[in-house]
Design goal:
single chain; 51 residues; mainly alpha; 3 helices; 65% helix; elongated; DUF3563 domain-containing protein
Length: 51
Amino acid sequence: MFTQLRKAARALRPATAAEREVAYLNEATDRIDLEYRQRAVDRGMFRNAGF
């Protein structure tokens, strides 16, 4: 029973910055796109609050 509750809780929690970064990098279509995306992540695309 608790296993099902843990799974539901994990499904409802927001993704962490690291998880969003990995998902963004995994969407790269080729090496050039991957390098571009890596530079964007290194610049703080997912970590800066903006304010």
